[in-house]
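Input record (one chain):
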Amino acid sequence: MKLISFVQAGRSAWGVLRGTEVVVLTHVWPDTVAALEAGVEQIARAAETSGQAGLPLAGLRLLPPVVAPRKILCVGLNYGRHVAEAGRELPAHPSLFARFADSFVGHRHPVWKPQASDRFDYEAELAVVIGRGGRHIAAQDALAHVAGYTCMAENSVRDFQKHNAQVTPGKNFERSGALGPCLVTADEIGDPACLEVISRLNGEVMQHGQVSDLIFPIPELIAYISSFTRLSPGDVIATGTPEGVGSSRKPPRFMKAGDTLEVEIPGIGTLVNTVADEPAADEQGDAHD
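The corresponding structure, as predicted from the sequence alone:
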C-alpha cells in the first residue's frame, strides 16, 4: 500500500495511491499521522470500503508523505563506505541530529540552495516511518513498529554543518531537503536491508549504496532512539547516506540552481527535485503558496 499527501482545495489532504488514482481518506483521518495511529490495517480497510471515486494523481501537488511528524531524527555517518570516504573511524554509537519539518518539501517541489552558502550537498537516504510507537523497543521487535519507508533527499549545507561540533544549522535550512513521493508500507518491502539507495544529479549516478552496509541497522537504530525518547506514529528516522557525496569528491561537487536531484530506492520510488536559489526575504511568502 502506498500513502501520499497532497494539496486539495488549498488544504493538506492524503490518501492511498492505487495506480494513477488516489483514494482520498482525509474525511476518515485528517492526516497520515492520525491514520497511522489507527494502524495500517485500518487504513487498508478504509480504502477498500471508501466507495468514493478515485482522484487522478496527475496534476496533484505532492507534499511529504507525513506532513507534520512529531520527530524527524537523522543518523550521520551510518554507511561503512561513507565513513571510509570521510576518513573517520567507525562510531561506537549512532550519531543523531534532529531536523525540522519545514526543512523538507515534497516530490517535484524545488529545494532551495541557501543564500548563505555555495556548499549545498546532496544526500540520498532511506527514511523509516514509525507506525507503532513506544519506549525501550527491543531490536528484535523493532521492525514490527515500522509503518513503512520513503525516499529522502536529506541534503546538507556543508560549511554551516561544520561551524562547530553541532551540525543542526547545516541540516535545517528551510526547504533544503525533500521526502517522498510516497510512503510504502512495510508489508510490501520485507527486509529493508535488501534495499538499494541511489542518487543522480542531472542524470549522473553519484551514490549507489546497499542498506546492508549500514553500521547500525534499522532495528538497532529504533532500539537506541527509543531508549531515550518515545517514538510516535508518523515519526521519521533517516538512516544515513551512502558514499559519493559531493563534499568528498575531488574536486567537490555541490548543487546549484537549475540542477535536478533524483533519489531512487527500487521498490519504493524515485523522489525528484530541482534546485532553485533561495528567494529574497520579501519573495518567500509567494514561494510558500
